[in-house]
From TrEMBL:
It comes from the Bacteria. It holds the Pfam family FmdA_AmdA. One of its GO terms (molecular function) is hydrolase activity, acting on carbon-nitrogen (but not peptide) bonds, in linear amides. SUPFAM superfamilies: Acetamidase/Formamidase-like. This is Acetamidase/Formamidase family protein.
Length: 244
């Protein structure tokens, strides 16, 4: 599928759901695109733009059943940096995290980096497995209702944290899965020691027996791992009021 995005009768972007993704950020409280590209244009990435209707549609003939699991692969806040930011990668401010557990009824916490936050969402998925192995999920268009809450005076470490209801989930990124797993683990240790005021040794030990590490995605250039911490395991501990 190839989408052309218009604003005030001007083409401001395209999205091909197989070859590349694009985040079109807008200036805070304005409708002017920060980055506006004419089309067609050279693409500084592997692959080609495939015009609609130029390729044969290949329906799946096997009787497969894929349960729907609707979520936004991209969400976050504007980064405290100048210039263009690669829309394919996950970052400390969010971006293309692609955590399939970020579904209806869950909450993702981001550290605000600029005045006004500049929240954005996109890259909607109908279903995706952990890893997003072939490069894409089932990509499609979704409308979502999102509640934004500003938590003042709360401690958040480097990367976004997901509250899925039964679990807390920290995220780690890296050029290898070892590095991504290490960062997710360190984020989890930091979170547990601050939220429950326990030692780093105890936090590390509990992650070994009740922390589940999942490959978030291997398709975004920077690999992702998320650590799921079961809330039930910590229900008898006192919660730090400064924690999220």
């Amino acid at each position: 599928m190839l989408y052309q995005i218009h604003q005030n009768n001007e083409t401001i972007g395209w999205q091909h759901c197989v070859l590349f993704f694009a985040i079109l950020c807008t200036k805070l409280l304005q409708n002017t695109p920060i980055f506006s590209f004419p089309y067609p244009r050279p693409i500084n990435a592997p692959g080609l733009v495939t015009p609609v209707g130029s390729v044969e549609r290949m329906p799946i003939t096997e009787k497969l059943t894929i349960p729907l699991n609707l979520f936004f692969g991209v969400a976050g806040v504007l980064p405290a940096r100048n210039g263009k930011v690669h829309s394919l990668h996950p970052f400390d401010f969010g971006g293309n995290i692609d955590n399939k557990n970020f579904i209806k009824g869950t909450s993702m916490y981001y550290k605000v980096q600029v005045d006004g936050a500049g929240v954005y969402v996109g890259d909607s998925h109908f279903s995706q497995g952990d890893g997003e192995l072939s490069g894409t999920a089932i990509e499609g268009s979704l409308n979502g209702r999102i509640q934004i809450i500003l938590h003042k005076g709360k401690k958040l470490f480097k990367n976004p944290i997901l509250d899925s209801g039964e679990h807390w989930e920290t995220h780690g990124y890296g050029h290898t899965l070892d590095l991504a797993n290490r960062q997710a683990a360190l984020e989890a240790v930091d979170f547990l020691t601050h939220r429950f005021k326990i030692s780093r040794e105890l936090a590390y030990s509990t992650l070994s027996v009740k922390g589940d590490f999942h490959v978030t995605q291997v398709s975004n250039g920077i690999l992702g791992v998320h650590c799921k911490m079961l809330k039930e395991a910590y229900k008898n501990l006192e919660v730090n009021k400064e924690s999220i």
